Automatic annotation (TrEMBL):
It comes from Chlorobium luteolum (strain DSM 273 / BCRC 81028 / 2530) (Pelodictyon luteolum). InterPro entries: SAM-dependent_MTases_sf. This is Methyltransferase type 12. Residues 320-330 have a biased composition (Polar residues). It comes from the Bacteria. Residues 304-330 are annotated as: Disordered.
Length: 330
């Protein structure tokens, strides 16, 4: 019998805290995963992504945080691309899928600086403006959702979800599809905010990475690994992503000020950056305490109940495992 989710925390929309709108989060007692209760429908959700300060879709900066975000993104793009390209011996033939590719800058960087072919790279991006930018500026192939991928897409040597998995409404279906799309020797890279991190504990409901209602899922330590294993995906490496600590601290401090009707003066900004540095250092010393974590998964060769096929059979691994057990008993 399913166990009802346990109320966890109520958080504001970081863009409009003055309105007093709050979103409840709940903890699944069985999986340990935190989720948004009663998320908005597709049309309402789309409106929540169109705020002019939503960072992944920024094309020009009009404030100090926006300028910092775009500058940091440009500086870190090479580092992210190196993580994706690591271990690829023939980039011209390697196939890459990025989910939540925004304006396509990572895929373009892989093409320009790492020898990947644009014809072998696909992006998933639901935001029409960002997708249009990527198609027109970089000539990339994009689709609005995973369900829109052509049937024979893949296998992919690299699948990237950089702060994207937490946005996907159908979590189980997405992980099953990613497992099927990943080549046997491929790698799945997932970057996520860490609700078990010290910055999340410090800021509580003001932690900017709750980002309700856009973030639908949050994965405390070990929860994503256990879920991924049911789909034949095994974590190989994980590391803290220090830039998330600086961004989270600055933006969370600003959100705390706004909620308390206080100004974000120079001293508060300096304090936020100091905290961010300390959170980043803590993540370097102990990954589980990091503000953001990058995990690398590969397909397990002997994962119980998982049968890999290019086309897939549309059956969840847990259901397939149960059916197999019943067959053995009959």
């Amino acid at each position: 019998m399913p166990i009802d989710p346990v109320p966890f925390l109520t958080v504001p929309d970081r863009f409009t805290p003055e309105k007093g709108d709050c979103w409840p989060l709940a903890l699944d007692p069985e999986t340990g995963i935190i989720s948004l209760l009663d998320p908005p429908g597709p049309l309402e959700m789309a409106a929540h992504y169109r705020h002019n300060a939503y960072s992944p879709h920024l094309q020009k900066a009009e404030s100090i945080p926006d300028r910092l975000y775009l500058a940091a993104s440009a500086l870190l793009l090479h580092r992210r691309a190196r993580l994706v390209a690591k271990g690829i011996t023939d980039p011209g033939k390697a196939r890459v899928l990025e989910i939540g590719c925004a304006r396509g800058t990572l895929l373009e960087h892989l093409a320009l600086h790492h020898g990947f072919s644009r014809s072998n790279m696909i992006g998933i991006e639901p935001d029409p403006a960002s997708a249009s930018f990527a198609r027109e500026r970089f000539k990339l192939t994009l689709y609005p959702s995973l369900s829109d991928l052509p049937p024979l897409s893949g296998p992919f040597q690299r699948i990237v979800l950089w702060h994207a998995l937490e946005h996907l409404p159908e979590l189980d279906a997405a992980l099953e599809q990613l497992s099927r799309l990943l080549a046997p020797e491929g790698r799945l890279l997932i970057a996520l905010p860490n609700p078990s991190g010290l910055d999340a504990a410090h800021y509580g409901p003001d932690w900017v990475a709750w980002d309700a209602p856009r973030h639908l899922w949050h994965f405390p330590s070990g929860t994503l690994e256990r879920l991924a294993e049911t789909y034949g995906l095994r974590r190989m490496t994980f590391k803290a992503w220090a830039p998330d600590a600086l961004f989270n601290a600055y933006m969370s401090e600003e959100l705390r000020c706004r909620r308390g009707k206080q100004g974000m003066h120079a001293g508060r900004k300096a304090l936020a950056l100091l905290k961010g540095g300390l959170f980043a250092l803590r993540g370097m010393l102990k990954t589980e305490d990091g503000a953001g974590i990058v995990r690398e998964f590969r397909r397990g060769k002997e994962a119980p109940g998982v049968q890999f096929s290019p086309a897939g059979d549309g059956v969840r691994p847990s259901e397939r495992s149960s059916a197999t057990s019943a067959d053995r008993q009959s």
